[in-house]
TrEMBL record:
Residues 30-244 form the Dienelactone hydrolase domain. This is Carboxymethylenebutenolidase homolog. The keyword Cytoplasm applies. One of its GO terms (cellular component) is cytosol. GO terms for molecular function: hydrolase activity. InterPro entries: AB_hydrolase_fold, CMBL, Dienelactn_hydro.
């Protein structure tokens, strides 16, 4: 582990001042943020939040970006009412905190969300994207859930990943070159396992000079040197979804 004092790579980064264009809804036992395009569509994307939870403005910004590209986007509270991590929390308590918020334990909630998207939103093709903790959740879903079309895992923490590399659906993995908490050796190992075992399309891409969270937690105007890579990561994410949905 790269940093024993900081077992998860997330910090709040550049938090967007963003309100969102969607609305919050209650779906059975789950709260969720839902954003819909003006034109009707049967394509939807589940947006899986990072450790800071479903109400982080940055994540809602990404959901609305998907909506601007023609997708129904939904960001459920996969912590199911439990608090997201706070920057003021003691990192020494992180592993205990994580025990009740495992990225591989979201299947019940995903089933509820899939039912809602199909029955209430008319969705027929559904994908998933996720950030950090949510990136690991996407990897889990791509291995286990037959009802999804594709996924994008953005800097999913590899130590949170399920064992296995025989993905069911085309999956795009976005990583940052200078991610202190996802060593490039782990990314190389993931690529080797995918090459040996994966029978569907996949891509692993490393973005030069970037750090953890660059796609959804950096403001381009604050980090002008990173702007091209932020934009590239976002375009790559959209293009992948467009290709397989």
């Amino acid at each position: 582990m790269a940093n024993e004092l900081r077992p998860c790579p997330c910090d709040i980064g550049d938090r967007f001042d963003y309100g969102g264009r969607g609305q919050e809804v209650q779906i059975e036992h789950i709260r969720a943020y839902v954003s819909k395009p003006s034109a009707s569509t049967d394509k939807a994307v589940i947006v899986i939040h990072d450790i800071f939870g479903w109400q982080l403005p940055n994540t809602r910004y990404m959901a609305d970006m998907l909506t601007a590209n023609g997708y129904i986007a939904i960001c459920p509270d996969f912590f199911v009412g439990q608090e997201g991590w706070k920057p003021s929390n003691d990192w020494a308590s992180f592993d205990d905190w994580l025990k009740t918020r495992q990225a591989s334990k979201i299947d019940k909630e995903v089933d509820v969300v899939l039912k809602y998207l199909k029955e209430q939103c008319g969705a027929k093709e559904i994908g998933a994207i996720g950030f950090c903790w949510g990136g690991a959740a996407v990897q889990h879903l791509m291995l286990k859930n037959p009802h999804l079309k594709t996924g994008v895992s953005l800097y999913g923490v590899i130590r949170f990943f399920d064992n296995g590399s025989n993905l069911l659906h085309p999956t795009f993995f976005i990583f940052a070159e200078n991610d202190d908490f996802i060593p490039l050796e782990q990314v190389t190992d993931l690529e080797q396992k995918l090459k040996q075992n994966c029978k569907v399309d996949y891509e692993v891409k490393i973005y030069p000079g970037q750090t953890h969270g660059f796609v959804h937690r950096k403001k381009e105007n604050i980090n002008p040197q990173d702007k091209p890579y932020i934009e590239e990561g976002r375009k790559d994410m959209i293009n992948w979804l467009n290709k397989y949905m």
